Amino acid sequence: MLNDSSSEVGPLSGLVVADFSRVLAGPYTTMMLGDLGAEVIKVESPQGDDTRRWKPPVLDGESTYFLSVNRNKRSVVLDFKDPKDLHLARLLAKNCDVMIENYMPGTLERFGLGYEQVAQDNPSVIYGTITGFGEDGGRELPGYDLVAQATSGLMSITGPKEGPPFKSGVAIVDVICGLHLAVGILAALDLRHRTGTGQRVSVSLLSAALAAMVNQTESYVATGVVPSRMGNAHPSLFPYEPFQTSDGLLVIAIGNDTQFERLCDALGDPSLAKNPLYLTNEARVVNRDKLKLRIEELLSKQSAYEWAKTLNTYKVPCGPINTIAQGISLASELGLDPIVRQFDERGKEIPTVASPISFSRTKVTYRRTPPKPNQDGETVRAWLNSLDKDETRD
Question: Is 174 a residue of the active site?
Fold first, then answer.
């Protein structure tokens, strides 16, 4: 195996991941595995990962989009049209524990890197595949997050009630798809530990989006009710949205009757919780318009910040609508350590957002900054060639 000078050991230490994926969903999965200790080898084409060119913003010329999902990886450039490079790519597939790819269905098969081909030489491999719309009727459809948000129905429930559909402020379907693939891979690895057999794990953007809409998709499949846009309102809970205070908006999220009683106490109108129109959550949802007027009347007496302090003392779920900068600041104040500060080989700091996972016995590790194209090409090629020589001697 490749030697890593780091003394840090994560729970997946010793696992070799061949990352044949690009853009976001696949690289997000492989970064998660790398953070957990796996040795991730990122295989790039001569053109490099698409996100290297997704600019601005940039940090010293590097795309921050690329930086966000590619730490803890080694980069090697392999041109599949070059017989020697293709041989090395097949060697990597033969000797890895996990292989992850998100090419159009059928593409890697042309190079002998499809699942059935890889599994012939590496029967214990866990082979992760991400597609846009599956490998049957949707195999020819390119998979991009925005298209998945649109076609899944996610955009149809996002945005103002009387306005146009909105996409999420981040490529949320890609992220959710990457998370589902990581869970599937870890489950397949557990089975391999018990049986010695590998398998393929597949996730599509469309399926991940439908699963991620949870109660909204369930409302349709169970009752035939097609959800629609409600802005920031919730279809099944109230109060559960932003409310106007004397100087701005404050989010209040009431999930049960006890919390509503505490809210009414904090607002100085405990009788509101005893009103038959608002006694239960179902009643509050039906009478949301009238109740919202009363809540905002009471909230108008103070600022959002003042109300947040008051409601927190009453243990009422609430919070201001922060910027990302304020969100990072809040996490820092709460001791969540949201920023990883690493330094590349030139001593240049490259900050990234920390993994949200923590362990009581092992730990998440940050061993490598996001690589330059082919940064580890010489090392990876030497390792693969050594494996090739060992097989020749055998």
Answer: yes
